[in-house]
Amino acid sequence: MSPALKVRVGSSWGPLTLLFQPGESMYQNLSHRLPTILLAVAILCIGLALPTISIAGDAVFIDSAQIKVSGNRSDANLGKSTSGAGDVNNDGYKDAILGAPDTKNESDGRRGHAYIILGSQNMDTEIDLKTPTPGTTIKIRGLHAGDQLGFSVSDAGDVNNDGFDDFLVGSPNAHGSGGMDESGNGRAYLIYGSPNLPDTISVGSLGSMGVTIIGGQEDGKLGYSVSGAGDFDGDGIPDLLIGAPEEEHGESSSGAAYLIRGGSLPSVIDLKMSHASVTRFKTGGNNHNVGHSVADLEDFDGDGYADIAITSIHHGDDGGLHAGRAWVIYGGVIPPAEANLNSLSSSGLAGTKIRIPDGDHELGQAIAGAGDADNDGDSELLLSRSLHDQDPTTLQTVAYLVRGSSDRPEFINLAQGGPGITAYKTLFDNDEDGQTVHGVYDHSGDGLDDHIVGIPRTVILEQEKGSAHRIDGNQDLGSSEVLDLHQQDGRAYLGTKDNQSVGRSVGGAGDLNNDRSNDLMIGAPGDSPYGRLRAGVVYFYLGNELRSPNQVQTSAVGQTVDITWNNRAIYDVIELFKDDVLIDTLGGEDTSYTDENVQYGDHTYQVRGIRRDITTKKRGSSIRILNPISNFMCRSLGRNVTLTWENND
Questions:
Q1: Number of C-alpha atoms within 13 angstroms, CB side, residue 526?
Q2: Using CA atoms, how far apart are residues 601 and 561, in angstroms rounded to an integer?
Q3: Which of 5, 123, 339, 508 is deepest in the core (most CB within 10 A)?
Q4: Region 445-456: what's the mean pLDDT?
Q5: Tens of pLDDT, residues 525-576
Q6: pLDDT digits over 56-78, tens only?
Q7: Domain with CATH 2.130.10.130 in the chain
Q8: Cα–Cα distance, 565 to 383 (Å, whole number)
Q9: What span, in angstroms and rounded, lies between the C-alpha atoms of 132 and 127?
Q10: Distances (CA, A) of 359 to 293, 323, 362
């Protein structure tokens, strides 16, 4: 046997060794030694211009994205927030919304902008928001200097039930209803989808185009986080969830989150006053910062109702201050006007507390639904923590995946682990908060929901460039209690420039260009396109096409046709066509069908899978049902028998 080949290189963590074992492919070894490989590539390629490098197929540099959206001016910080927006103009293409909260308008500092990027069949690969192609973007302008419109953005679903998807934009430093003297109350804007949205929307004059939601307390920062809430109350109309982490409810900066139930809403909702459609969630604890992040979890317990999540990054625990906490609140009920998150049952609500007995963990920096990553019928939850003064030479936990369950436990202690919890770890140095998380549905094409973790201060080659990591679904995510982000099924997206902040936001965009795949986006607000310092860039990666069923075969006995096929992905349903006419909708796991009393002649049977909003290509097989013979006659002459008939085919 040949001896192992060792390559030893220096790094910011000390000497590292890359080991190739005999009989193993270098390809395999490279794919699991990303930090070392990056160093080796840098050493080997000094002086070379390498705009795009793929390492063993599981890591790419961020500038390999198919679509790049650039901020319109210096210090705009485009990409601090990103989200899918649904289909706001109902043209059949999903759209995306991007935040640039530090955009200045002439002499006004940090008024903020948000942008809708409209999906289409042939999207521009380079979108410069300073001079975008007409009809490809919509700009939403902040109201006043310092408002930071676009600090948070989210899809909202069809809140007003008019057939168009709506979206949310947060502006946490906007003034209150009492005028400029009420600073920092914060606002959130619900903007209704329409086929006639103007190229520029001013939130100061929304009128019938949407709803202005105004924070009720000075410096409460409503709109710091925003999210759709699914159909929480089960009335068939999506709801909204908005965080105000600096509001005071009994104690300083105790924070709150507001659930606003969808339907026919007024054009202005001032949270100084009570509203029949609004529920306030709080704890009342000092510096808890409830509402730091909020999320739609889809159906976490699998009961058919939408569930939501709220975090409180400075909530104390047995391990000390600032441990952080998150709550899952289960839907299917109409909540009261106010509910204490630490005693939900007293408000007629059910929930689960997610805790970590570790001071300064700051659990809940970000929280998001992760889709149904393990394909068990309920959705998963993804949440991140901060990293303060951690040892960069050891693996550190940056995020947790918590599997959904019908059990509805009262508590989940992340420190105890278990089959329903996976801790995501990384070796890259990161000495600040800001990890981001998001579900991206199925990006890889296998029908299983994927998700993504952003680490914007990842140190690569002694520079803070940032990174993001896509984790593919169905890899024993619940049973693997620890998962190294560099040794998982998925892909790493790596920054290329110092202070680029790749991964400051991450999100799923849906199918922007109708290529039968879910696309993802990664924000890099520190990027400097076209010489505009910190204008920011959002990078879009187009997904892999949802794999079609194959090996479609047909056979017939008389007028009965049997159709069989092989499923190559996870589908919600399978549609069966005969001669281009839909004849049945089957379960997503079905692989056969029998069609009886089929007419004589030629027929083509086709199947296609559907997963969420994505439809595969049709795959089929043709067969001919022969007409039976006619005029069959039998004659005998002596010992000779003569048979005659007419062939009708």
A1: 17
A2: 12
A3: 508
A4: 94
A5: 999 999 999 999 999 999 999 999 999 999 999 999 999 999 999 999 999 9
A6: 348 899 999 999 999 999 999 99
A7: 62-233+243-249+282-541
A8: 39
A9: 6
A10: 19, 4, 8
